[in-house]
Amino acid sequence: MVTQPGSGAAALRSGDALARPASAQFGARVADLGARVGDLDLVVDLGQRIGSRIWWRGLVTCAALCAVAISFAPDLGPVAGHSPAPLPDAQFAEARTLAIAPLAYGGDTGRRMAPTDAVEPLTDTPERPIVELRATLSRGDGLARALERAGVGAAEAAQVATLVGEAVPLSDLRAGTVLDLTLGRRPNRTVARPLDAMAFRARFDLRIEMARVDGQLVLRPIPIAVDETPLRIQGRVGSSLYRSARAAGVPARIVESYIRALSTQIGVPSDLRSADRFDIIIEHRRAETGETETGQLLYAGLDRSSSRDLQMMQWTSEGRAQWFEASGVGRQRGGIQQPVPGRITSNYGLRMHPILGYSRMHRGLDFRASHGTPIVAAMDGTVSGAGRAGGYGLQVRLNHSGGLATSYSHMSRIAVSRGARVRQGQVIGYVGSTGLSTGPHLHYEMYRNGQTINPRSVRFTERAQLSGTELANFRARLRTLLATPLGAARQAGAPAEAAQAAP
Fold first, then answer.
1. Do 131-223 and 344-459 fold alike per CATH?
2. What is the CA radius of gyration of the chain?
């Protein structure tokens, strides 16, 4: 033992040191190995650090995993099975007579046998004694032409058309009319088959039947009774007028007409409320044979929860059909319709001409639009000019009431002719770049008593008003329509879907 001044002393003996247990040493080694494995990057990104030791270690690990996966793949070898022995020729022939053979074999299937003395050879293939077929009238087609295409001779087809024309005008035959034909036996193949019978629906209320009696064609018209009670449908507007009307059974085109009629008096859908109720009356025809036919919208009503109710009926006044209120007041026609759906790029007034290069009075409005865009009439009028007009290019000029006139220039194509009457919104031409023009656009001018004016300065309103006998006739017709009970047309025939939408 060694001591130094001011220091402590300790005595150590070899027997005093205790050896660590084996289990503790194993646990320490396991913990050290776990720490090393945790620090080991087993999932290596092979797109990074290519060529390094870590990258090669990842590549080897990936290859090893793929090899192990492939080694566990199942064996996809063929499965052994039993193949039956082929049938002898005699048994195969018997089996073939009982089997369903491919159509390509034709008469070669089945048991063969030699012809006997009962077989008589044919010099020619016999024809069918009669041929029953259907022919359909095409658009712009005639009855005689359709019969000729079906195999009827030209002379007989003309005779049939004459007979039918005596019972019903041939112009009443619509495209899509189906002709049920029966063609008889002919003496030889060089002539057309004779028409033995024909039947078709000439009109909704008329069926035509024709048959050969004692060698002569006899026509028999068969009238069909038709119930023309209008169809009335009511329902609640709800979240969507269109969807609610369609759910109530109103055809799509009638809903569109109904919305257009309402739009002449109120804003749709801005002025509608969910509690409002629509009232629609439609032309409706039901034949005794069960067919139905829907015509035009007759009455458009709207029971409004927060404003005045609307009752509107279409009426023809002064040669023009339009919607009138129950009081006989027609729709309001306000302002001037924009001729093309485009932005105004140049206003009325003095400007620098883009081609001539100096200031010049611009006597109209320029609308930007793509080439070929339809141009419509701003108002009702008469075409006073249609053709080329110098720097204006192709131009259409319209005269309107009240001393007003309009012109539409730089067209690519004109759709009306001089002297024709046009309605507001009718297509009169198409946008182009003819004349002094830098690109496709419409130059629109307005005149009052022959002098150009700013088109934006004109605002006017028209209202059609019925009076006298015409107003009395209008109201009488309206009362008749309003007397139509709900779902009357459907109640007269077979049951159909509900005529009234669910509230």
1. no
2. 46
CA distance 442 to 372: 11
The residue type of 40 is L
User: In terms of CATH architecture, what is 131-223?
Assistant: Roll (3.10)
Q: How far apart are the first and last CA of the chain?
A: 112
Summarize pLDDT for 13-52 with one digit per residue, the tens: 544 445 556 667 777 787 777 777 666 666 778 888 888 8
Helical ranges in 215-335 per DSSP H: 241-247, 252-263
What would the 3-class secondary structure string for 390-452 be? HHHCEEEEEECHHHEEEEEEEEEEECCCCCCEECCCCEEEEEECCCCCCCCEEEEEEEECCEE
CB neighbour list of residue 175: distance below 8 Å, 6 or more residues apart: 137, 138, 139, 140, 141
278 bridge partner residues: 235, 302
Cα–Cα distance between 208 and 293 in angstroms, integer? 19
Distances (CA, A) of 42 to 53, 58, 119, 355: 12, 7, 90, 76
Residue 398: closest CA among 409, 387, 408: 408
Residues of the chain with pLDDT under 50: 1-8, 12, 14-17, 460-461, 493-503
Handedness of CA 142, 146, 147, 149 (dihedral sign): positive
CB neighbours of residue 328 within 10 Å: 20
Q: In angstroms, how far is CA 160 from the centroid of its own chain?
A: 39
| Domain ranges, ordered by start, for the chain | 131-223, 226-335+461-503, 344-459
In whole angstroms, give the CA distance from residue 378 to residue 374.
12
What's the pTM? 0.49
- Domain 344-459 top-level CATH class: mainly beta
Q: Are 303 and 295 in contact (CB under 8 A)?
A: no
Phi, psi of 107 (to 5 degrees): -75, 5
Tell whether domain 226-335+461-503 is in CATH 3.10.450.350.
Answer: yes
Map tokens 């009306």 to a residue.
Answer: 416
Structure tokens that stand for 289 in this block = 């044979």
Q: Are 465 and 326 in contact (CB under 8 A)?
A: no
What does the pLDDT look like over 141-170, one tens digit per residue?
Answer: 889 999 999 999 999 999 999 999 999 999
- Residues paired with 197 in a beta bridge: 182, 211
CB atoms within 10 A of CB 385: 13
